[in-house]
Write a structure and sequence with these properties.
two-stranded antiparallel sheet, 18 helices, Serine Threonine Protein Phosphatase 5, Tetratricopeptide repeat
Length: about 375
């Protein structure tokens, strides 16, 4: 990728960072209060991606420069272009010294991404934790996954030198540590400790999760608490943990229709739309309770929307609404698909009905925002 393309990306990132800072300043009191809303989390993610990450890019290049000076070289050019950068080191370097110069900046990036992890559980101000959590995720993905891949795809960048296996034992040791670190971080992300932190965004939800966890441990053969736990994890976007519960349920009660529905729900959350649609249609051929049918039509309509089969998604919603005419989720899905088909009036009608039948204030507010954004109305 030529430099001007990197520069173009950096310019867009700079503009977004300015917009983010302006938005935070305009919502200063709401952003820093004790209540963390979905909008606050979105801003926290943007601060991590477009404000903190560019600063670590600068420190990444400083790391390269310090390593160059450490081995007796000279930095003849130092460039920090917000979202990317480079230095030009000059000197009579050995292969090991050349490797160290390439690795040092990435070591800085990795350490900076990992540094906040031990403090996340100790930070009492939730929004600060959300900012740091967003940065940790972004920093790990950028330094341990995205940049190594980009280096090899573009055939430029530090990781070509870092993984030059003629430079031993450094390249091999780095590969072993790299794989172990990714594996360990993935296990940490899926751990009960991390799930507890994420669910802590909603204290009531956290209490429910802890109660269900205790019930499943006290009554390991009872499927009701496990089903409730899996449903909660799916609703809170914790697919890995939900999959573990589902695997246990499949061994305990493989013929239970609710357990089979759970497998379809997990496929849906994993964005395996075609598998989800096939399984849901096959399941609907059975003699099911109305509650199971409604949930399957919700899943069908959503999955068909995801792969742009809007007319089919409307029909799936229609079939579900013949069973439950006031189901707000089916009304929402039908509205979104009507809107995707350009049927604005039908979409507005469905959303009005959905708002009327939505008891949860947060969901109702989200729907009202969607209406305002799409139809310029409240």
């Amino acid at each position: 990728m030529p430099n001007f393309q990197f520069d173009t990306i950096a310019i867009f990132a700079l503009l977004i960072s300015i917009q983010t800072l302006v938005q935070v300043s305009r919502n200063w009191a709401d952003f820093w209060d004790d209540r963390v809303t979905a909008n606050d989390r979105s801003l926290a993610q943007r601060l991590g991606l477009f404000v903190i990450l560019p600063l670590t890019v600068l420190l990444h290049e400083v790391g390269h420069a310090l390593a160059t000076w450490q081995v007796g070289g000279t930095v003849v050019d130092f460039q920090w272009r917000f979202y990317w950068g480079f230095i030009i080191p000059v000197g009579d370097f050995s292969l090991a010294e050349d490797w160290w110069i390439s690795f040092s900046g990435n070591l800085v990036s990795i350490v900076l991404a990992l540094l906040p992890i031990p403090f996340l559980l100790r930070i009492r101000k939730r929004i600060i934790g959300e900012i740091l959590y967003s940065f940790v995720l972004i920093g790990i993905i950028q330094s341990l996954v995205a940049y190594p891949i980009l280096s090899f795809v573009s055939q430029r960048g530090d990781w070509l030198r870092i993984y030059d296996f003629t430079i031993q034992p450094y390249a091999t040791i780095t590969l072993i540590v790299h794989i172990a670190l990714l594996g360990g971080l993935w296990q940490l992300y899926r751990s009960p400790m991390a799930i507890r932190w994420r669910l802590g965004r909603n204290p009531a939800m956290l209490d429910t999760w802890e109660s269900l966890m205790h019930q499943t441990m006290d009554q390991p053969m009872e499927i009701e608490p496990q089903l409730a736990l899996a449903d909660l994890l799916i609703a809170q976007n914790e697919p890995s943990a939900a999959k573990q519960v589902a695997a246990k349920l499949t061994r305990t009660a493989p013929q239970d229709e609710r357990v089979q529905l759970l497998q379809i729900e997990i496929a849906c959350q994993n964005q395996d739309e075609r598998r989800t649609i096939t399984a849901a249609k096959k399941f609907l051929r059975r003699d099911l309770t109305p509650a199971l049918q409604i949930r399957l039509y919700q899943i069908l309509s959503f999955s068909q929307y995801k792969i742009s089969r809007f007319s089919e998604a409307v029909e799936s919603a229609n079939q579900g609404l013949t069973i439950a005419p006031n189901d707000n989720q089916l009304l929402c899905y039908r509205a979104i698909n009507h809107w995707a088909l350009g049927q604005t009036e039908a979409a507005q009608t469905d959303l009005d009905l959905a708002l009327t039948n939505t008891p949860d204030p947060a969901q109702r507010q989200s729907l009202q925002t969607w209406c305002q954004d799409r139809f310029n109305r409240k």
